[in-house]
Design goal:
The complex is a heterodimer of chains A (285) and B (324).
Chain A: H1 2-32, H2 39-57, H3 61-84, H4 92-114, E1 127-130, E2 133-136, H5 137-159, H6 161-171, H7 173-178, H8 183-206, H9 216-230, H10 235-251, H11 261-275
Antiparallel strand pairs in A: 1-2
Helix pairs in contact in A: 1-5, 1-8, 1-9, 1-10, 2-3, 2-4, 2-8, 2-9, 3-8, 5-6, 5-8, 6-8, 9-10, 9-11
Chain B: H1 2-6, H2 8-27, H3 30-56, H4 64-79, H5 85-107, H6 113-132, E1 142-143, H7 156-183, H8 185-195, H9 197-202, H10 207-233, E2 235-236, H11 238-241, H12 244-257, H13 263-281, H14 289-303, H15 307-315
The chains are: A mainly alpha (285), B mainly alpha (324).
């Protein structure tokens, strides 16, 4: 029982970070109906970003994350203008392949520069013990950071002019343009925010797990599952979806082999797509 | 004369495949045979995917699931149940067709991005399942006893040549099926679905059935090819059998050549593998071959979305009769 409790807490803390990663994916989908297949490599870039800042500049990794966020935002806007903008109104295949080509470019250059050998960030925040539960400092901080980021994203989307523009474009791009919203800039900003969230999630993961340049792929697939779980296009749904997935990953190994976790995850994913494509928290269309 | 004219598109497609196939037969080298084997495999896979992606307009991102599943079923029958390659290929193709039929009814209701996501999910679910499935060897997979190859021409080298000839026949068959699907009434229904599914239904196309059969047709050949590929390989493991990357490569090949045309996937598959081989062996691009391929893909998606054949068809309408 104690073991189960510990697994759940562990899963919940991890789930917050999964949620942030998925939020990046789902924000882009919600605003422009694009599935960002470069999501995984961007997560990996976030990991390497904080790693390089920590080992190269010797900065505290948590300051590094702020830098990674800024760079992620800029990178996302660059990707939007280079690869996505021209095909934003084309069929899905075009945007899928355009973002996948970015995936190939990042992975190709990344493996050439960093090789595929595993890295880790040698920085510990210690841990504390509450009865049967051991809390790792880095995971607690990551969970708190994730909550702050979610809050920040909501404040941005609901309290600022830019945020209102983003919601307007997501709602109806043509109508928003007629109202004078600079839609191209807003789309680029949204894409930037999405990649920023992915990069930050990667940076947070890097503070407690070892990683390679290919490590993002797993989290990309998890983000798909979470995004669909919470309803694609729904950032808060993504956070809850992340928590659900984290808890599932904590609970399932207590009664069946760990290798079955992905089987259940993806079966759940396909079932939700079939039965409730709008997600558990999505409104009925 | 008129009869020949009608089939010019098919004749050209078959001619291109045969020209590729003839290359290793003329120079007799094993290395050439391996290069052309990869090219023909890509041509056949891309042509099958094209039935769903190009004609029907449904983007299957997890098409490799049929290649892997067919390969696994056939391999199990060969390695454990001592079946011959021929019956194993039939069984592998059938297994993929049955999976496609069952899935098709359910997931082809989804459109656009949701369908693409579902196909990725299915591939990952099947791979994770096979990883845990002890009958198929779990994460270790299975391997063939070397003796098996003696039944196919005497030795390993003869068996490799025989696999090559079988692949030529399968590629020709796939291309022919692809041609006849496109020029049939069934194919016209698929093209209508691609353009506007709701309008197609109003015009009397029974979309759910047509889509399902297109899905089944596009799954059969990858299943058969999977058996042949892993037979030649000698062993099978979950990771190479359900490699998501191969799925996406298949899409790239179709896009490169021209989606929705018969000749496109042939040129796309062969061209993509040639290019990849060049990048991998070129000292300048060796380390960044993936990035270079990515840039190329981006350029094609952004500027030549119709692919090579599609672009030529737009520029030179007179060639449309031949370049189908």
């Amino acid at each position: 029982m104690d073991f189960l409790l510990a697994s759940i807490v562990d899963g919940l803390l991890l789930g917050f970070v999964y949620g942030i990663a998925a939020m990046g994916l789902t924000l882009i989908w919600g605003v422009m109906n694009v599935i960002n297949l470069a999501h995984g490599p961007i997560i990996a870039l976030g990991m390497f970003g904080v790693y390089l800042i920590f080992t190269g500049l010797g900065l505290n990794p948590y300051i590094g994350i702020v830098l990674v966020a800024v760079l992620g935002l800029l990178l996302g806007m660059l990707i939007y203008y280079v690869a996505v903008h021209r095909v934003i109104n084309a069929p899905h295949l075009s945007t899928l392949l355009a973002t996948f080509s970015i995936n190939m470019i990042i992975i190709g250059l990344g493996t050439a520069v960093f090789s595929a050998s595993p890295r880790n960030i040698d920085f510990s925040l210690g841990s504390m013990t509450l009865g049967p539960i051991t809390l790792l400092g880095s995971r607690v901080v990551a969970a708190i950071a994730s909550m702050l980021i979610t809050g920040g994203l909501y404040a941005f989307l609901y309290k600022t002019r830019q945020g209102r523009y983003i919601r307007a474009v997501a709602n109806n791009r043509d109508a928003a343009e007629l109202m004078g919203v600079p839609s191209t800039k807003i789309l680029a900003l949204s894409f930037g925010l999405g990649t920023m969230l992915a990069a930050v999630a990667g940076a947070l993961i890097a503070t407690f797990f070892p990683f390679t340049i290919l490590a993002g792929g797993v989290y990309e697939l998890k983000s798909f599952v979470i995004g669909v779980l919470g309803g694609l296009g729904n950032p808060v749904g993504a956070l809850f979806g992340g928590l659900i997935l984290g808890v599932l990953e904590g609970i399932i190994p207590t009664f069946m082999p760990t290798t079955w976790v992905p089987v259940l995850e993806f079966v759940l994913f396909v079932l939700i797509l079939l039965v409730r494509p709008q997600g558990i928290f999505g409104a009925k269309k | 004369m008129n009869g020949i004219r009608k089939y010019l598109g098919l004749i050209l497609a078959i001619f291109v495949v045969l020209a590729m196939a003839a290359w290793p037969m003329i120079d007799g080298k094993d290395i050439t045979r391996e290069v052309v084997f990869t090219m023909l495999l890509s041509v056949a896979l891309a042509s099958s995917l094209n039935i769903l992606l190009g004609y029907t307009g449904y983007v299957s991102f997890g098409h490799v699931v049929f290649f892997g599943l067919g390969g696994y079923v056939g391999f199990y029958l060969m390695a454990v149940q001592d079946w011959s390659l021929w019956s194993a290929m039939v069984a592998g193709g059938l297994a993929s067709a049955v999976l496609a039929f069952l899935l098709g009814k359910a997931i082809l209701r989804l459109r656009g991005g949701y369908f693409a996501l579902a196909t990725i999910g299915i591939n990952e679910a099947v791979r994770a399942f096979i990883n845990n499935f002890d009958l198929f060897g779990g994460p270790v997979g299975m391997s063939l006893n070397f003796q098996v190859y003696q039944n196919y021409g005497g030795g390993a080298r003869e068996a490799l040549w025989m696999s090559f000839y079988v692949l030529i026949a399968l590629t020709l068959l796939t291309v022919t099926v692809s041609y006849f699907v496109r020029s049939s009434k069934f194919g016209l229904g698929l093209l209508a679905i691609r353009e506007d599914e709701d309008a197609a239904e109003v015009m009397g196309v029974i979309a759910p059935n047509a889509k399902t059969w297109a899905y089944v047709l596009s799954a059969v050949f990858p299943g058969i090819l999977g058996v042949l590929f892993f037979f030649k390989n000698g062993n099978i493991e979950p990771a190479p059998a359900f490699r998501l990357h191969l799925s996406i490569e298949m899409i790239v090949m179709v896009m490169l050549g021209g989606q929705g045309t018969v000749l496109g996937p042939i040129l796309g598959g062969a061209g993509y593998q040639r290019l990849r081989g060049f990048l991998l062996t070129n000292p300048l691009f060796k380390n960044i071959q993936l990035a270079v391929a990515g840039v190329l893909l981006l350029v094609i998606v952004l500027f030549v979305p119709a692919g090579v054949v599609g672009w030529v068809r737009q520029r030179f309408p007179k060639l449309r009769r031949i370049l189908q």
